[in-house]
Structures are given as structure tokens and as C-alpha cells.
Amino acid sequence: MTIYDYIFKDGSGNDVSLSDYKGKVLLIVNTATGCGFTPQYKSLEKLYETYHERGLEILDFPCNQFGNQAPGTDKEITQFCQLTYNTQFPQMQKIDVNGENELPLYTYLKAQKGFAGFTGVSAAILKNVVAKADPDYKNNANIKWNFTKFLVSRDGKVVERFESTVDPKKIEKKIAALLAE
What we know:
There is one protein chain. The protein has 181 residues and is α+β, with helices and mostly antiparallel strands. It has helices at residues 40-51, 74-85, 104-112, 123-133, 172-180, and strands at residues 7-9, 15-17, 25-31, 56-62, 149-152, 158-162. 29% of the residues lie in helices and 16% in strands.
């Protein structure tokens, strides 16, 4: 299978096929509205406004698996994001990214790019939080927290995985380079 074989639901319950995004650079993010990383929506929206016309798509997958930090319905989550951060990029139905009910797209993404460690200012704090829930976290590909980001090239290759501690503005140069290819 390739990334373009996956189908999922948008926030309104409509089928979305990743094949509709062939030729685009994708940033796929699991999000939450009540997380310390939620302000990353601002950086995500800025990237979207700057690069969408050049071929960037950001796909937002709300997830309530980490500290129950994505409460509410899909509609409530969308309203929060639009009112608070003026988000314009597509938001999907709330999903699981790990475990028995994980979205198959996330099974694929994790198989393509596993966990490579936390970086940045919040790395030590997040390591402690994650280690309490999963002492073996370093040795599995599971999503560790909200706002894990996967960067996908125009030809559908998962190029890189960025953990929650990486603000989207820190990956702008990588996005711009992929768009220029």
C-alpha cells in the first residue's frame, strides 16, 4: 500500500481519500484543543496561509488519547480551532492514533517513520510524562503525545516525523524545500 490508498472521514463525516492529495506536500498532525501544545495551531495556520497556494496541505486529526485533551464533538473542536486560531486547513474526525482502534493511516505513518526522540525546550518534561505511561516508549513507534507531525513529499513518501516538542515554524525550511522540488 501507499499513502494514497488510505480513506478516512472529515469532521463532517464525509469520506476523504488521500489520493485526492497526490502531488501535494502534506503535513499530517494529530491535535488536541486542551493541550500545552495547542498554540501550535497558530504556527500551523501561518504555514498553511504561506504555502497552501504552492501545494502544501495540512491535515488535522484531533485525538483524545493523551490526557483527554481533545474533548467535545468534531463540530465543537472545529469551532474552537476556527474561532481561536482562525484555522482554514482541513480538519478530520476525531481518531485514535495508537492501539486497537487506531486509524490505519497512522499504522502506516508509524511504520514509515518511527520515534526518534524528543528535542527542544519541552523535551525533558515530555519525556517524564510519556515515560510514566509507557516505560518502553523509546523502543516503539507509537505516537507519544498530541501534535506529532508527519511530513510527506509530493510523491507520497513520508520524509520525516516531528514530535510534539517541535513547533511547526521550525520545519518551515523543510516544507519550502519539498515544495520547490
